[in-house]
Amino acid sequence: MKVIVVGIANQRTTLPIGAFPVTPGAGPSYHHEIRYSVGGIAFAVARSLAALGNEVDLAAPLGEDYPTSLIDNEAYRFDLSTHLCTRTLARTPRSVVLYAEDGTRQVFNDLTDASRASFRLSDLQPDVADADITILASRRMTAPLAAELADAGLPFAVDLHEVGPHILDDAPGEPSEEFAQWVAPFLSARYLTMSAERVPGREKAALTALAHASRAELVIMTLGCRGCLLLVRQPDGSWPAEPVHVPASPVRITNTIGAGDAFFAVFLHELLTCRADPITAASRANTAVARLLAAEPAHGGIGVDRLAELLGPACAPRVDPTAVLQADPTIVEA
């Protein structure tokens, strides 16, 4: 599969802090634990897809500084092309991640002047016309691009991340400013993903509202350790009355960095490269994320072989859909 991933790549500094909250005063001394690596949602998705054997082009706004050299070197290790990246920023984006022993984390992002960057269809030509899918990993810089992809009939996927309660409250009527800016431009995507983090207790209703507002073929909501909810449009164009819950295996969490990005990448890989049905693709993505969550943290970078090992076999066997078509008592409506 040929993929273009559009969004942020950054220099990431990671620091273990034991537990939250951080106690003021003199901190501990470290041994090989404060690390520089490459982060950013777009890079994380692109890296996972490349480790699974896909042909991936990254489109990210960069500068002409040492973090860009770090990003280029990491892209080379994973056989990622960066020829679509721009090099016009004053400073390449940075992030600092504090992570605790229980897997919780706090992320500080400095987008620099990337917050004003954007990509248009012309920036991605001619590659975008040959891509099987374009993944928009940053809503901030890709709203105009989403409209152009839709007008050109080119398939794209979007992770909406933490969509708030407004998806329920105003999507059917007068849209709020948040809905108009952060959701509406992406409703023409073929595949839509969102997180349940901001709609606890209202997961099914939020996912259903998103599906009915969109033109997507399928929509997914990640539920953290509970797996995900999935709605697939039926042949007649309607949506099922109830989403499918695809559960995840319980694991001891040691590392949550990039879990959602890995889910999105593995799901699309299984769906498009392996031609799996959506339930199998979601189950396979849950399994891959469970491995990542239970793995020793690799915050200072990870090798291609190790990432491929954690993400699992190239194309997993199909699962029995009846095994996951069951009610989950932990998913309730408010």
Automatic annotation (TrEMBL):
Q: Keywords in alphabetical order, please.
A: Kinase, Transferase
Question: What Pfam families does the database record attribute to this sequence?
Answer: PfkB (PF00294)
Q: By its UniProt entry, which Gene3D superfamilies does this protein fall under? A: 3.40.1190.20
**Name by which UniProt lists this protein:** PfkB family carbohydrate kinase
Q: Which InterPro entries match?
A: PfkB_dom, Ribokinase-like
Q: Domain Carbohydrate kinase PfkB, which positions?
A: 3-288
Entry GO MF terms: kinase activity
Q: Which PANTHER family match?
A: RIBOKINASE (PTHR10584:SF166), SUGAR KINASE (PTHR10584)
The source's superkingdom equals: Bacteria
Which species is listed as the source? Bowdeniella nasicola
